[in-house]
Amino acid sequence: MRFCVERPGWHDHDGRWIYVNGDHVHGAIQPVRYIGPSVRSVRSGTLAQWTEGVWRLATPATLFLIGVSLMGPLLQRLNLPNGITAHVFGPSSCGKTTAARFGMSVWLWQLGQTNWDSTRLGLAATLAGYNGACLLLDELSQFASGDLRAVMYMLAGGVGRGRANRDGSAQQRDHWSLTCLSTGEVGGLEFAGGEAHGGQTVRWWDLVVRPGELTRSAAEAASMLEFSRAQHGTAGDAWVARLAGLADGEWEQLREVANEWSARLRSSLTESSGEETRLADLFGVCAAALSYAGTFGILRQGEPEVAAAIEWGWERLMEGRRGRSSVEERYAQVLLTIVDSNPRRAPDEDHYLDANQVVGVRDGHLLYTSTRLLSQAPELKAVGLGGGAFLKWAEAKGAVTSRNRLRVGGTQRRWTLLDLRRLHE
Predict the structure, then answer these.
(1) How far are the Cα atoms of 27, 66, 110, 229, 240 from residue 45, in angstroms, in the given order?
(2) Which of 58, 108, 130, 234 lies 20 to 30 Å (CA to CA) from residue 339?
(3) pTM, two decimal places
(4) 96, 343 Cβ separation under 8 angstroms
(5) Contacts of 128 (CB under 8 A, 6+ apart)
(6) Exposure string for 301-310, b = 16+ CB within 10 A, e = fewer
(7) Phi, psi of 146, deg, nearest 5
(8) Tens of pLDDT along 345-387?
(9) In 59-158, where do the E strands start and end?
(10) What are the CA-CA distances from residue 234 to residues 109, 128, 244 (Å)?
């Protein structure tokens, strides 16, 4: 008799763990038929081409995202928390979406298929379709900030809301155990507002990115995007095929490798809380995923590259946790990132009239700006502070050198002159 399943991921079939990855079923002895959504059945390219492309293109940051993607099938088997989300955030045009799609190439190519522009009910159905894998959720700003906290709980709970049929009987709930890659221009915990609880901060990783960390050049970003479009799905299928073949003792060995990596991270903590110990344990699993993928021949990266990737993610996460900043400081950091990473948005006086979405006119370490220019930048709006309030804070900090009505870049207005060096302090 053929065993039918409508949900991808791990299943206990006659006392044996099998993994359903779309139309590919791994670890089954008896025939198994998948009757669920077909999205997980789409693959392109070859494993060898994917492995070579990742070896050529990955930075420590993007290799970390691949590690998060590979973690998805490990959560259920290692009895780990659901819905672990790596949220990379920073200014527009710094390569966040390109890097996230690169990480998602383990499983599939996503272009406009999944983003935060979704209802909670629709998101639950999407999460169930990626059970046992990884899901990309792009552009956090498209989601209603007031609902994000509830969605964080939903992600962690691994189960959707209960619904009733017309006759009053209960419908089957959506279930999932997976990781997520998320992108946005502000941190998710900031965007959600309110005080974050321990379970949320363990499962939601806000990782601020700096210029050049995700992609080293525009040409490399284009190559990475084209690679993800052409090469996807083969690595994830090879990964779960190998995992499905592991005996119970081999899963314990994988756990031990994760514990070894976790111990390295815990040793770097001068003062650790229970939350940070749990985070170290989860990062250890990410490292073990990358390490085992290398052992299985899915990745060419060895221990030095894995260590650099985990170190990048850990430093970015700890930086945010230890340096919880005021809204004004976060605003200043976003502004400095825009100015440093995208000169076209802070051009010199000669190019001001030809530029779009500018935040000011730059003259060395000085920035001529105004409340209106700052208020038009979507990244700065998302911080939740007005441009005028920020300039008052900057003036109190000593970062405003003058406020005068001047003609700069051919435009007559009241300009505020910011000293960017003082904002860095």
Answers:
(1) 23, 17, 15, 9, 17
(2) 58
(3) 0.76
(4) no
(5) 7, 160, 174, 175, 176
(6) beeebbbebb
(7) -65, -20
(8) 888 877 776 667 788 888 888 888 888 888 888 778 766 688 8
(9) 84-89, 134-137
(10) 11, 21, 15
